Amino acid sequence: MERILAASVAVAACAAAVAATALGGGRPAATCGPALPDGLASIGAAEQVVSVVVPRSSSTRATLRLWRLSGGCWVAAGGPWPAWVGQRGVSENRHEGDRTTPAGAFGIGPKMYGVAADPGVRYPYRRVRCGDWWVEDPRSPYYNRFHHVPCGTRPPFRVTDEELAHSPTAYRHFAVIAFNVDPIVPGRGSGIFLHASTGRPTVGCVSLDVPHLVTTLRWLRPAADPVIVIGTRAMIRQL
């Protein structure tokens, strides 16, 4: 009888472990601690997540953390670090010129940029030079895209900001947050970056001090399909 009972217990334990593993994406669910990316359908197949959490939608300060998928569990990979967002906080209905940072889940653009030399990122990197612009004119066919014109010439679009090379502090290094890219909707918003802090709120980007920015940009891997999620905790839970 004792052998039969022991065998039954062992079978039950084995079945429970198999079930837990299936639910936990390859590891028993009980071994996964709580993590912000848990259950976010909008991150798709991402294996890296950057979270930018504000206490209120009107806040200009945020907390940025890095998360990576390991054995079916999300684990902390960096942070928490203080970050800046838009002068008018974050918005789920961002549009051109409203000085908010878009709330939601977004990919990372296929190329990184910077006025300074490549700090060792895993993405293709363009050293910004004279004539490099990010187009903010909704009427332009280049809207919300990088565009280069010969240095010193007038660009073929309405200029609303300085060319990239004229912002050496903010654009020392930056990644493009893939907001309003597929499709690009004129007027919805343009030039949303993860860039270096200037010590004050942004006009719609997310900014970090240079050491933490460089750590983040070096950590991001194109093959990991990274996603950045931005908003209050309530906003992010709905993604």
Oligomer: single chain
Q: In percent terms, what proportion of residues is strand?
A: 25-35%
- Rough shape? globular
H/I helix tally? 3
The structure class reads alpha/beta
Global mean pLDDT: 89
Main pleated sheet: 9 strands, mixed
Number of domains: 2
Residue runs with pLDDT of under 50 for 5 or more positions? 1-30
Number of strands: 13
For the termini, the CA-CA separation is 53 Å
The radius of gyration computed from the alpha-carbon positions, rounded to a whole number of angstroms, is: 22 Å
What is the ordering of alpha helices and beta strands?
Answer: HEEEEEEEEEEEEHEH
Percent range of helical residues: 10-25%
How would you describe this structure to a colleague?
Helix content is 15%, strand content 28%. By secondary structure, it is an alpha/beta fold. It folds into two domains: 1-31; 35-237, no CATH class. Strands 1, 2, 3, 6, 7, 10, 11, 12 and 13 form a nine-stranded mixed β-sheet that branches. It has a two-stranded parallel sheet with strand order 4-5. Strands 8-9 form a two-stranded antiparallel sheet. It is globular and about 60 Å long. The model is unreliable at 1-30 (pLDDT under 50).
Question: In a few lines, what is going on in this structure?
Answer:
By secondary structure, this protein is of the alpha/beta class.
